[in-house]
Design goal:
By secondary structure, this protein is mostly helical. The protein has helices at residues 17-40, 43-69, 84-112, 119-141, 148-177, 182-209, 219-227, 263-278; strands at residues 232-242, 248-256, 282-289. Strands 1-2-3 form a three-stranded mixed beta sheet, covered by helices on one side. The chain starts with 16 loop residues before the first helix and ends in a 16-residue tail after the last strand.
């Protein structure tokens, strides 16, 4: 189990101005690549420009979501606004998948309908894009460790850097060997990578928003560990979910056996066990006396298979 799951990842003190600067830089790069792509006729370069435009929007969403997520809990949102970053990540990844599908369509079309290309322009534009992508990824790297939202933006720029290298090599092949087919092939590779990376992160983000059980966490192990404590007869109605990517929560009913301790002592023991062994810092426990509860000794947890 990741015992540091709930600890700070050191990103809260990183200035949000970094995100704003990356938005400005990526917008400038997108304009440059659109112009260069139109002049050179390169679909790969235009694809990279479209990707960068999406990145600029994604980074702006990351900035806004990051600001919103810091708001404290209130009467309307009693858990706070921490999931705003997850919503931002979901928007980013969905948009990126749409971009990837469009690139597949455009690349296939260019294979059957090739157009003349200017390799020199492609190389020059891809070289500039590579420099900008590396700088942007470097700016986002320190922020990406503690946030799915910022990590999505960081991965966007890593993808851009790889795409720029591919376009640069493709431009060289077109310039020296006149291999026009390289351009749509590179586009297909870029699109495939975009779809692969985005679908994985989208699945993880969706699981948290759907309040799914955290990965690598066994409900059976939790049940057995708690029922092993002195005084606990049965654990049922167990629910475990993630408030965000750093905070796990649990809700359960605990039926107390014969040799029971005081409720407060037993509750503290269970909470300490959950926090130390399973990294669950927020737990709500309903303690039930055996004599006062309905017959639930034979009850099976429907959430376990």
């Amino acid at each position: 189990m990741g015992h540091n799951h709930n600890h700070s990842h050191g990103t809260e003190n990183v200035s949000d101005d970094v995100l704003l600067w990356t938005v400005i830089v990526n917008l400038g790069l997108s304009v440059f690549e659109f112009v260069a792509g139109a002049i050179s006729g390169s679909v790969a370069l235009m694809a990279d420009a479209l990707h960068n435009t999406n990145d600029a929007a994604a980074l702006l969403i990351a900035y806004i979501a990051r600001r919103i997520s810091r708001k404290g809990a209130d009467e309307q949102y009693t858990f706070g606004y921490r999931r705003a970053e997850l919503i931002g990540a979901m928007i980013q990844l969905t948009a990126l998948i749409l971009v990837g599908l469009y690139l597949v369509y455009e690349a296939v079309r260019r294979i059957f309908e090739p157009e003349p290309l200017l390799g020199g322009w492609i190389m020059a534009a891809a070289g500039v894009a590579l420099i900008v992508d590396v700088i942007t990824a470097w700016l986002l790297w320190s922020m990406s460790k503690g946030s799915l939202n910022v990590k999505a933006a960081f991965l966007h720029n890593l993808t851009d850097a790889g795409a720029s290298v591919a376009v640069l090599l493709g431009g060289a092949a077109i310039y020296w060997f006149d291999w026009a087919w390289v351009d749509p092939v590179i586009t297909l590779i870029i699109a495939g990578y975009i779809l692969y990376m985005s679908s994985g992160m989208l699945k993880k983000t969706s699981r948290i928003l759907m309040e799914g059980t955290p990965p690598n966490l066994s409900l059976k192990e939790i049940k057995e560990a708690i029922e092993h404590l002195d005084g606990v007869d049965n654990l049922h109605h167990l629910h475990v979910w993630e408030l965000d990517e750093h905070h796990r929560a649990l809700e359960a009913h605990v039926r107390i056996g014969g040799n029971r301790q005081s409720h407060s002592i037993l509750r503290k023991q269970i909470k300490d066990l959950l926090d130390n062994k399973f990294s669950i810092s927020h737990s709500t426990l309903e303690l039930e006396d055996s004599a006062d509860t309905h017959r639930c000794g034979d009850e099976k947890m429907i959430y376990l298979k």
